[in-house]
Amino acid sequence: MLALPDRGLTLTYDMTESHPQNRRLGYARVSTYGQTLDAQLEQLRGAGCSKIYREKVTGAHNDRRELLKVLDHLAPGDVVTVTRIDRLARSTFGLFAIVKQIVDAEAQFRSSPNRGPAPAPAPGD
User: Fold this and answer.
1) Is 18 an active-site residue?
2) Checking DSSP bridges between strand 108-111 and strand 79-82, what pairing results, if any?
């Protein structure tokens, strides 16, 4: 807040509106146009993602515009969530490169698979 009482002015600027702390950002991707994003979107919403970037493009493409948007707009404290790590990258090397960009932005990465109910214990356990 900037106050100039002698001029009767008060200016309030809230930085959290442009870069709120700990934003939960989701990224959903399917490889072909015949597939649907519905299940991923539901899981990401359930994980508390306030903004979900989505695209239909093969993971082999380096030109994934929505993923680039996520990476370009990260702020410290943000959490990037995917339903499975294969939605983010096709190889371990690719995954490490993307996660490094997230960490370098002082953000976090999370894979939030829908695990479903825990299996019943085996008899005698």
Assistant:
1) no
2) parallel
Beta strand pairing status for 2-4 and 9-11? antiparallel
Entry pTM: 0.72
Instruction: State the residue range of the domain holding 49.
Output: 20-111
Number of domains in the chain: 1
Per the CB < 8 A criterion, the answer to whether 70 and 81 are in contact is no
Structure confidence by residue, pLDDT tens digits, 36-81: 999 999 999 999 999 999 998 775 666 789 999 999 999 999 999 9
CATH code at 36?
A: 3.40.50.1390
Catalytic residue among 31, 91, 111, 112: 31
Asked if residue 53 belongs to a domain, the reply is yes
